[in-house]
């Protein structure tokens, strides 16, 4: 029998022991577990929730199924940043085992990272716990140049696509290069923007993946959580040691909610990506945020768009584009007026992404404010960039809401009795295709491809 699909595995939990046969595994909201023997050979699975808890075990089992590893290779922790902190602590632990005089480990990370990741790496660098360098990971040759200029690289932290610029790092090629240069270099991938449903970096030579489960995995913005997944058994033991020693394991209630969130990951992500595809095409073709010889800057950035310079590369190792997109207005003031417009009824001005609700933000003032403005400028991070994180609402409602706010912010106007949308900032126009009329092309492209891949998996019913 063929293996079950990921979506099915996430909905149907493995059998669990419960005296009443509860369909949903119970929440073990207990710190301690009674011990029936003091004999070491009869050690029980649980004694104290910092060390382990049955509800946390269930969520770890589910994430293990998502990534195709054993459940003792997965750790659920209190946030995405905690996940990275634990991984980096293991690196620092290993390097200090070389003695007090051992140099701090050298880490190469992207130069377009989530603001909190940048902050943590800068913090470690400032205390000489690690030497963090940055490279444009979407440019293979530049990355190689930075890597080869170091006497030794101990760790590489990768993220693709980046949040919110949507730059793609060629993860299979980069990981193969790094391992060929130094098989002991720890390769870490932040898979938050994709989730395990869209990409599994463990399939190429990455050592450890983490996700902010606060985002897609949970999907409802009611918990903070992180997950760490590795195939490397020695690293798994170290991670367990750090989680148990520091007490950063995910709490029982959060674990229980994450198990529930994971059940609907498949349908949520599907609808969120559908909305993002429609919206990105609409912003590009109808609202004038598209590349032309005259307009190279005010474009829609989304890895699901054919016009994205790395569209094919992204598709080559991911199963979907995710639901985060961005665009620039060319003016900080216009972007601010859009994001703060009173006409927004559905799009909430909120950080984070991966939630069932649609969110709009200005990263330079919100999620990426932790990056020094001088560094943002040096890295050409646009101050006027607007990020859209699509939820599961009706797509026509989302378009109408955004259009009303864009008109209110003086970015676009409707012309020809509403038939055309004119972009006042770059002079481009397109047909007003909000509502049902906007959908056919996208449906062909998106669902066409999806159905084709589903059909290729269809097998004959077994003879009973
Ligand atoms: C790409 C990415 N990685 C990691 C994190 C950190 O996750 P958390 O907020 O759960 O600590 C975030 C957002 O916060 C993020 O956007
Ligand atoms: N004030 C927070 C900002 C969190 S940003 C959350 C998320 N990663 C996003 O991209 O929106 C902080 O200082 O970390």
UniProtKB/TrEMBL annotation:
Cellular compartments per GO CC = cytoplasm
What keywords appear on the UniProt entry?
Amino-acid biosynthesis, Lyase, Methionine biosynthesis, Pyridoxal phosphate
Pfam families, per database record: Cys_Met_Meta_PP (PF01053)
**What sort of enzyme, by top EC class, is this?**
lyase
Pathway note: Amino-acid biosynthesis; L-methionine biosynthesis via de novo pathway; L-homocysteine from L-cystathionine: step 1/1
* Alphabetized Gene3D superfamilies for the sequence: Aspartate Aminotransferase, domain 1, Type I PLP-dependent aspartate aminotransferase-like (Major domain)
Database matches in InterPro entries: Cys/Met-Metab_PyrdxlP-dep_enz (IPR000277), Cys_b_lyase_euk (IPR006238), Cys_met_metab_PP (IPR054542), PyrdxlP-dep_Trfase (IPR015424), PyrdxlP-dep_Trfase_major (IPR015421), PyrdxlP-dep_Trfase_small (IPR015422)
Q: What cofactors does the UniProt entry give for this protein?
A: pyridoxal 5'-phosphate
Annotated family? Belongs to the trans-sulfuration enzymes family.
- Name of the protein: Cystathionine beta-lyase
Q: Which organism is it from?
A: Lachancea mirantina
Q: What lineage, starting at the top, does this entry show?
A: Eukaryota, Fungi, Dikarya, Ascomycota, Saccharomycotina
């Amino acid at each position: 029998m063929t293996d079950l699909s990921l979506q099915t595995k996430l909905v149907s939990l493995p059998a669990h022991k419960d005296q009443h046969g509860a369909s949903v595994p119970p929440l073990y909201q207990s710190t301690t577990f009674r011990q029936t023997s003091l004999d070491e050979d009869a050690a029980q699975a649980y004694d104290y929730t910092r060390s382990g808890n049955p509800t946390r075990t269930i969520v770890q089992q589910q994430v293990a199924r998502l990534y195709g590893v054993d459940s003792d290779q997965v750790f659920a922790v209190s946030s995405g940043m905690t996940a990275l902190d634990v991984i980096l602590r293991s690196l620092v632990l290993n390097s200090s085992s070389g003695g007090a005089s051992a140099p701090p480990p050298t880490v190469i990370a992207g130069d377009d990272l989530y603001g909190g990741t940048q902050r943590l790496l800068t913090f470690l660098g400032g205390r000489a716990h690690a030497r963090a360098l940055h490279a444009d990971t979407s440019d293979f040759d530049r990355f190689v140049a930075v890597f080869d200029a170091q006497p030794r690289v101990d760790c590489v932290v990768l993220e693709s696509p980046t949040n919110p610029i949507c730059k793609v790092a060629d993860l299979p090629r980069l990981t193969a290069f790094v391992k060929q240069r130094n098989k002991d270099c720890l390769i870490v991938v932040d898979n938050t923007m994709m989730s395990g449903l869209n990409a599994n970096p463990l399939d190429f030579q990455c050592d450890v993946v983490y996700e902010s489960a606060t985002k897609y995995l949970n999907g409802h913005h009611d918990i903070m959580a992180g997950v760490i997944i590795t195939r490397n058994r020695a690293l798994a033991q170290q991670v367990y040691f750090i989680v148990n020693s520091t007490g950063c394991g995910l709490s029982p209630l959060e674990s229980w909610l994450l198990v529930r969130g994971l059940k609907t990951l498949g349908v949520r992500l599907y609808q969120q990506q559908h909305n993002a595809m429609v919206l990105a095409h609409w912003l590009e073709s109808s609202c004038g945020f598209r590349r032309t010889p005259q307009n190279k800057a005010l474009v829609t950035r989304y890895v699901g768009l054919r016009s994205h310079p790395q569209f094919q590369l992204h598709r080559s190792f991911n199963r979907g584009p995710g639901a985060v997109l961005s665009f620039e207005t060319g003016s900080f003031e216009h972007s601010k007026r859009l994001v703060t417009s009173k006409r927004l009824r559905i799009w909430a001005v909120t950080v984070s992404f991966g939630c069932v609700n649609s969110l709009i933000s200005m990263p330079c003032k919100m999620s990426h404010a932790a990056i020094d403005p001088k560094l943002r400028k040096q890295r050409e991070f646009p101050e006027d960039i607007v990020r859209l994180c699509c939820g599961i609402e009706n797509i026509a409602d989302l378009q109408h809401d955004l259009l009303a706010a864009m008109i209110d912010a003086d970015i676009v106007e409707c012309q020809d009795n509403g038939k055309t949308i004119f972009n006042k900032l770059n002079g481009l126009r397109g047909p007003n295709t909000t509502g049902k009329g906007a959908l056919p092309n996208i449906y062909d492209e998106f669902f066409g491809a999806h159905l084709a891949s589903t059909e290729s998996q269809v097998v004959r019913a077994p003879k009973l």
